[in-house]
Amino acid sequence: MSTNGVEYAYFGAANTAGGFRSLFSSLFDPYGGAWQRLYILKGGPGTGKSWFLRRCAEEAERRGEAVEYIYCSSDTASLDGIRIPSRGVAVYDGTAPHTGDPAIVGAVEQIVHLGAFLDSDALAARTGEIRARIEQKRAHYVRAGRYLRAAGSVRAEILDLCSQSFLHEKARAAARRTVRAFAAQAHPDVQVRFFTAHSVQGCVHLPTLEKKGACVPVCGDGAPLFLAALCEAAALRGVSYVRCADPLCPEDTEGVWFSDAGIGYLWDRYGVPMAGKPLQTRRFIDADAARRHRSYLRFAKRCQSALLEGAYSELALAGECHGALERIYTAAMDFDALNRYCDGFLREF
């Protein structure tokens, strides 16, 4: 959704401590009544799915439509989907690991099979190479998953230590005062989005909200605890908000965006400038209690950092394998025919 030149972009999934977590079932729910048409793209790596999505987005914006860009959480340079809520139309990648199969075939959902433009004979000649790359890629993802799982365990320990010295009731009172400024609604809309990903490019954060409105940086180790209190207060008051889920532990929160007011409270850990006055969570910390486990907290943070670096190394190797697969499939694609098909699709899109 481009507003004031800012692309409304987020990730539709995440590589988490608990495995791959996808939001696709809620983002592209055919039963919710929000979508008149859902186009599900099928095709292997390198068959032009991200390119096809980009062309659909460009055409929609040329017509003045607001587009939401959903990026791939593994290869963050690639698109996984676009949504055009005002028209009730969305297009998304329905291949693994976020496999999408039509439930209301024809009436709402339609398959767009980009694999139809592949030269199967050319691919058959390289079957052994393809299988080897797929197995190598799977092995790297398995190892990355182990590192992320261990990092998630350390994160839980870090939050537990912070919670022991966190003044929860004081934070809840501050959160309640904050949400009083926002209008309550009879049917508040609560959404969950990922704006950060653990990917083949490392830790990638999309500064969508920082650029979109007035954001308050929430600083300190107590940030996720205060943000959780803010979500709780907003829910009790009946205020609509977007919860920015942590990519490692999605049940934790790294930001809250109050879309109706155009104001966000975001954990200040990515170095992105924000316009709001910083909210220091040390005001909610019992200094004496925090002092008792300060050294252990520092050690736990170093452990988490090392484990995440291990995960990024394995994800980068998985990305290299995926790139090799893309090159094999790209060489077998008839992109001239795909381009002609795309031109026709966009005329009726």
Could you explain the architecture of this structure?
The chain starts with 7 loop residues before the first strand and ends with a helix. It folds into 2 domains: 126 residues, no CATH class; 119 residues, no CATH class. A hairpin with a 2-residue loop joins strand 10 and strand 11. Helix content is 44%, strand content 21%. The protein is of the alpha/beta class and 349 residues long. The protein has 10 helices and 16 strands. Helix 4 packs antiparallel against helix 9.
Show the helix and strand layout:
Blueprint: E1 8-11, E2 13-16, E3 19-22, H1 24-27, E4 37-42, H2 49-62, E5 68-71, E6 79-84, E7 89-93, E8 109-113, H3 120-124, H4 127-165, H5 168-179, E9 190-193, E10 196-199, E11 202-205, H6 208-212, E12 214-219, H7 223-237, E13 241-245, E14 253-258, E15 263-267, E16 279-280, H8 287-292, H9 294-331, H10 335-348
Parallel strand pairs: 1-5, 4-7, 4-8, 9-13, 12-15, 12-16
Antiparallel strand pairs: 2-3, 5-6, 6-7, 10-11, 13-14, 14-15
Helix pairs in contact: 4-9, 5-7
